[in-house]
Amino acid sequence: MSKQKNWTTVTESQHNWERDALDFVRERFPAHEPYRAWANFEFIADDGSINEVDLLVFTPRGFFLVEIKSHPGQLEGDAHSWTWRHEGRAQVVDNPLFLANLKAKKLASLLRRQRAMGKHRVPFIDALVFCSAEGLQSKLDGNAAFHVCLRDTTNRPGIMAALKSRNCPGLSVQPRGTFNRPMAKAVTRALEQAGVRPSHRSRRVGDYELKDLLDEGPGYQDFLGRHVGLEDTFRRIRIYLVQGETDPQQQVIIRRAAEREFRLLQALEHRGVLRAMEFTNHELGPAIIFQHHPKAVRLDHYVIRHKDQLTDDQRLGLARQIAETIGFAHRKHIVHRALSPRSVLVLDPESSVPRAVITNWQLGYRRIIGTKTPLTREVTATIHVEQLSDDATRLFMAPETMVDADSLGEHQDIFSLGAICYNLFTGQSPAENQVALAEKLRTQRGLRVSAVLNGAPEALDELVQFSTDPDVSIRMETVQDFLEYLDKVEDELTTPSNQLVGDPTQAKPGDVLPGGHQVLRKIGTGSTAVALLVTKDDREYVMKVAVDPEHNSRVSDEGEVLSKFDDPLIVRSHGVMTIGDRVAILMDRAGKTTLGQRIRQEGRLSLDLLQRFGDDLLEAVVLLEREGLAHRDLKPDNIGVALAGPDSALHLVLFDFSLSRCSLENIRAGTPGYLDPFLPLRKPPRWDLQAERFAAAVTLYQMATGAMPTWHDGVTDPSMVECEATIEGERFFANLRVELTGFFRQALRRNPRERFDNAQQMLEAWRAIFSTVTATLTATDE
């Protein structure tokens, strides 16, 4: 083909389908002025984003940015999303017109700033989507078909009709601007001045070349990155677009969003969280390198694609996975705030047991109650919610988040969980827009599945409504409440199969595992294991199963540690077993509630329970020290409350020893607030038994006051200032105020050498406090 002077190919396409689409237009493209075209280039917009353009066309009838899509088969969808179907397979994508429109606006803004346009007004750039596959059957209609062109045929106008005569659904009859030869020349010079360049495929972040754009949102773009040395190694690269912002305040907002997301992710090692591997800098702004899952699809696309094929088990399974991951984050004092189907990836969409991971934590925060270290510091919430979220996400966000950016709490994620559950079971978004959502919440007092789904189970309807109630005081309070209600939904929707299950992590109530243990319910999922409540021979046990084979060694190590104990203060293990490719521990149940749940519900303990539970905790720590072992994550949520002893009184039982074999050099292992904030000051920085006693002291303080201890102003990292713990003596029982104050001042000293020398000494000091009590201890209703 002879080269046309008015057709500029900036970069030769690497794809046959794209070259074919461009050839279709070029072969029919007039060679005279003012027609001009530019194919395959990129530009960096004013906001710093990298934008690839398939085709830009200037004609006497308009200025067009053309996005090329070339999927064969059948196309259907609406104004928000499209579904391509071919040979029995379906692919769901966002309507590409949104991205094309955004690129057109960014390009117009960039051209306006060029010297060549000084005397000219940049014509309006219309976005078009060219679906170029031959024989494509388009079922788009209404506004879904706006600005969409196919190939021109004898009976159907297509892309050329749109470019030459504006014959395309949604295009205005008259173009906006001047379209003559002088304007064509001015646009050409402006493009040169703007730095139009070849494709971004040669761009790099660290050791990774940027390939396809995977997704983008407010202030960031996600690219596929391929390692320059290991060509079969891919990562998801998120670039936060700081440098392109001209407003210094906006630059700060976006940079902080990047730092906030990465810092939060460092505390979230969980199979339900997309793993952030590295934080680095790029010429456009901060970049986060994530693990890449090539088959992953966004949850909103997954629901559209599989809407009619999803089983109740799959919907329930996804809802449970997402809720358990958010529950894990809440136990780390982290709240997501912007949870939606757009922030959930389904990793294996064709599997009968799809797996979900959560992304997009940049609006989240971490509140550290009490102690902080440089490694577990507080991550504050942003007030710039609207600037860092898009319209689709805001439909799943709690309404109070949009009204008051300072309204913080786990209740925000509870609303989002309910809205996602609504989407999973109805296949619909909560509303068309925020105005409609607000009206629906006001009139229905929450989202109602029954308003959309005939015959919706009552438990499902109540779960969604109670978790999305606009009145926070009525809304479900915790993820645990949500999961317990989800159990009721599962009971109502599914019938126990009573079949032997090979993968215990996917077991449902009623299923029987190899070995004859029947599942009663799933207790929860952590970073390394799934806990199941099971029964055999009329006795209940807890089975802790590795989440995947990679974590078998962690579970096996924990089982080995537990095997060394035969004491009622440590949860009793009945051995390690292998089920399929997973290692599991069978153990007794450490009570029906945890110490953490009791403190959250009732506040500080009564005097007799404080004495008894304090004895239990410190005796357990003494036992661990005697055996040369450590728990490494002592906290109320890892301590059960169970009836024990000859008098069947309440006692504590330690469980979850999953960190007990953690390296001493790892001073981040554990839970913020219970980690010794002065570990980084050790010479060298290593975990030690003083850190174990510190966690025990913080737990005792919670038992005695219902609150966490604080240092200095409660905000500053205590290792950065010379300070001691603030002991709020007025919170203690009056007759023990002096003794308890002295105990905690010593147990929480900044200098570990000034604390108790060992757990036995700490236990004796605790017992000495209560030996001074002359009043009769108040009887407790147990």
TrEMBL record:
Coiled coil: none
InterPro entries membership: BREX_PglW, Kinase-like_dom_sf, NERD, Prot_kinase_dom, Protein_kinase_ATP_BS, Ser-Thr/Tyr_kinase_cat_dom
Pfam families: NERD, PK_Tyr_Ser-Thr, Pkinase
Domain NERD: 13-130
Domain Protein kinase: 208-486, 517-767
Single Gene Ontology MF annotation: ATP binding
Record NCBIfam families: BREX_PglW (NF033442)
Protein name, per record: Protein kinase domain-containing protein
